[in-house]
Write a structure and sequence with these properties.
single chain, mainly beta, 8% helix
């Protein structure tokens, strides 16, 4: 729709309007272990969740491996993420769940 054909009172732009945003500068992502002079962590342990397995939300219908030790699961009504014990240790102790299951909405 051209500007001339836009109905009066219709806002210009909106969610799908093309926008130009500056590139982020001066931001550097650093692994805390590397910054402390240690070797970066290597993840080798994978989760053993499969379709048909049990989850906190019921029987697992679909499994998607996001990375080593990170598995996303879907059930009939909900879903979430299962972390391997190794990955779960990287979660801050305030938020860490002992079983490694995390709800997808949180």
């Amino acid at each position: 729709m051209t500007q001339a054909r836009r109905p009066a009172g219709t806002p210009v732009g909106g969610q799908f309007a093309p926008t130009n945003r500056p590139e982020a500068s001066g931001i550097e992502l650093v692994d805390d272990r590397v910054a402390a002079g240690k070797q970066p962590r290597r993840y080798r342990q994978a989760t053993t969740v499969r379709e048909g397995s049990r989850s906190p939300w019921g029987t697992v219908d679909y499994v998607s491996r996001r990375a080593v030790g990170i598995t996303h699961v879907d059930t009939a009504g909900h879903g979430g993420v299962k972390l391997s014990s190794e990955r779960n240790q990287d979660v801050h102790e305030v938020w860490r769940r002992p079983d490694g299951w995390y709800e997808e909405d949180c």
